[in-house]
């Protein structure tokens, strides 16, 4: 009987390196000739300060804005202005979630990988992303698929999908002390599952 797909979730406190690990694994697998798709996120920074989060489709390279700080006032001290990429959306902490980009680029990246039969990285299943029914449906589709999956999951998110991933997938808790070794281990695990079977 053939083994099932490799399903690994990484979690940990903010800043522990979940997004960095997911991207490192995806890039290492691509360097070895494997097709990897899905969604990556990264900080948006201005003047060295984080002002939001970026989305990137790992297959197409398309980029968008997941969320951004809403400025306190508009020009002349009036009503708040909408900066680029900060379409009106639900608030998570101090960030406005951009549901349009989350749907078209975030969920779209997962949907495209599923259509193409490309093994998946999903970064992140967290409070911002879980405001999108389309994103939730895309991740659920990935779980039903025969594809290998690496996902980062918010450590405390109480949404049923986040709880399901933490309960059903092989869970790795990251910290600054173990993230580099974890990236090497997970790259090797996925390379072996994909058929490389050699050391990284």
CATH T-level topology = Rossmann fold
* Low confidence ranges: 71-81, 196-200
Architecture per CATH nomenclature, i.e. the level-2 architecture: 3-Layer(aba) Sandwich
The Cα radius of gyration reads 17 Å
Distance between the termini: 27 Å
What would you note in describing this structure?
The chain has helices at 18-31, 99-116, 133-144, 160-168, 179-194, and strands at 7-11, 36-46, 49-57, 63-69, 91-92, 95-97, 119-125, 149-153, 170-173. The protein has one domain (7-63, 97-194): Rossmann fold, CATH 3.40.50.300. It has a 9-stranded mixed beta sheet with strand order 5-6-4-3-2-7-8-1-9, sandwiched between helices. It is α/β, with parallel strands linked by helices. The relative contact order is 0.22. Helix content is 34%, strand content 26%.
Task: Provide a short characterization of the protein structure.
The chain contains five helices and nine strands; from the N terminus they run βαβββββαβαβαβα.
Structural descriptors:
single chain, 200 residues, alpha/beta, Rossmann fold, nine-stranded mixed β-sheet, 5 helices, disordered C terminus
